[in-house]
Structures are given as C-alpha cells and as structure tokens.
Amino acid sequence: MKIKSEDLYDRVQELLLAAGESPDNAKIVAESLVKADARGVSTHGTYLLTPIFDRVKVGQLALPTTTSLVIDEAAVAVVDGGNGLGPVAGNLAIETSIQRARAYGISMVLIRNTNNLGSLAFYTEKIASQGMIAMMSCNAAPAMAPWGGAEAFTGTNPIAISIYTGSEMLFSADMATSVVARGKIRQASREGKAIPADWALDADGNATTDPAAALKGTLLPMAGPKGSALALAVDIMSGILAGAEHAPNLKSFHAPDGKTGVGGALVTVDISKFMPLSEFKDTMGEYIKSLKAMKKAKSATEIFLPGEIEHNRERASHEAGITLDDKAVDVLNQLLEKIGSTQRLEAIV
Predict the structure, then answer these.
(1) pLDDT for 262-276, tens place per residue?
(2) Which of 68, 158, 166, 267 is the most buried (most CB within 10 A)?
(3) Model pTM greater than 0.85?
(4) Contact 222/179 with Cβ under 8 angstroms?
C-alpha cells in the first residue's frame, strides 16, 4: 500500500520519542528511515523500528542518544556514538567532516560505539550536495565468509560514494560488499520467497535458494575475492582503526544479544580546494551527458548514473506516496498501539 511520506515521517518520530529518543535526534533518525523506504530500500527503513524497540526493552540501546568527539585533531576526528542510534552519530560525523574539509581540503572522521547506521548514501549525499565528494563505510555483524571460506566472518560491510554534479541528481553509489544485503534475505524469508543460488551458502557450505538456510549459513562476497578484500578493508578502517568492534566480534542489531559495537569511516573532499567548483560542475555536466549518449546494450533503454534510479523513486514516493507492504504497515500500527498512540498509518485512497 502507499502511505503519505509526511504521515510516515510523523509517526516514526512519534515512535522514536516514545522509545526514549530526544526530539532533535528523532528528526534525524526519522529522516534516515523514511528516506530509505521512499527509495525502495526497505531493509534500511522503518522496518528497523522493531529491533530498536526490542533493544530498548532489554536495556541494550542508550536513549536518548548522546554523542561526542573523543579524538579531535585538525582534519581528523573520532565520534563516539554512545551506544545510541546510528544516524545521530552519523549526523555528527557529517557536520564535523564538512567543517574540517572546508578548512583542510580533506577530512577523515571515524565512528565507534554505535549501532546500525542505515543507508550510507543518507550521509554521503548530504555532504556531496555541499560541493564535495564523500566516501563512507561501516562494518556489521558476521554474515559473510571471506573468499574460500564457508563460515561467516565479516559483515556485509557497505561502501557509499557520492559526488557533487552541480544538479539535484548526484553521483551516488551505495553498495554492500556481499552479493546482496543480508536484509534482502531476511525479507525473502519473511515473505516465503526463494533466493538466487549465488547469494549464499547454507551451514554446510552448500549453495542454497532457501533464505532460512542462508540465514543459518553465510552470504557470498560480490565479485568473489574482490568483494572479500573490500569487506576486510572496510572492517579494518571502520572497526580496528576507529576503535570499534571488528570481525568476528560484532553483534547483530536485529537480535538483542549485546552491544553491536558498529564502527564507521567517513572521508570528505572539498572540490573547491582542487579546482573552481564551477569548472568541476561544467566538466561533470559534459561527462554525464557523454555517458548517457553512448551506445546502449540491446537490453537497456537508458544508462543511469549511480543512484539515479533511487533518486527518481524517492521523488515519485513524495508525490504519490511511499510503498510499504501490508505486513510492514501492520507492524508499525501495532507499535503505535503499544505506545498508546491514537494515530494510525492508513493507505492513500
């Protein structure tokens, strides 16, 4: 069903406040979750409210989120997320990285002691829109075997890169280092659907199309050893260097088995320190024009810039409503009922 984006945003804020988050922090987190749903990335969207409430219930999430800079040295900094909600720590990292890149041309801000950061493009796009380039990564609970292994060691350890283009449509790539995000396998399991045979191995190291078996086994890295190498590099930069947890010691946010210990790494570049921003904008405009004008494969109708499909989907969602499956809406309404809210999410008529 389709839900008005403003209604979803308001109800998410209401739920976050009831969970114990502060008003300002609730706005940041709600923006992250709703944006993911609007882009069709439901694995990083309002679905995460359920594990948030589960963690609050057992005292494994510190709300309201309190963040701080524990290292603050010129172009580098480290954010401590206070074991609170990831988007709040990520927001402080954004603000800090932009300030330092403006001053020094480039900055690196690491994050420790936080939880699920959600979609990393949420952060990198905010930075890129300021005339910059941003690259962000984070680690996660063991879900993927290194190349040649049959046991989960690293997380899906995503990387996002966003680049200013001079227009609303940014270059924005956001990807897991696994063949697919683990959340898509959870979603397939909830919906009783099979998965492709090249997504995961079962607990015995065999390829499987059963999402339940895959969740007990391990995901496969994208592009084989290349994705495996990237995942390990992300864990080292976002985990070890940040002073966060690292493989295989992180905990899943989706089960209240203890602090997740998630870490992140954010690198920001101020384009204007390397060339006039207007020159970069003009060159990027010609670059994108050439990209889109090139000969297309027979199966393609258009060549999209990384992030363009999600951008278009988000814009359509704000105009016509955000698509959520009926079960997801039921879960949100049940949470609203539990907190004593008189409000409910309803389909756009």
Answers:
(1) 999 999 999 999 999
(2) 158
(3) yes
(4) yes
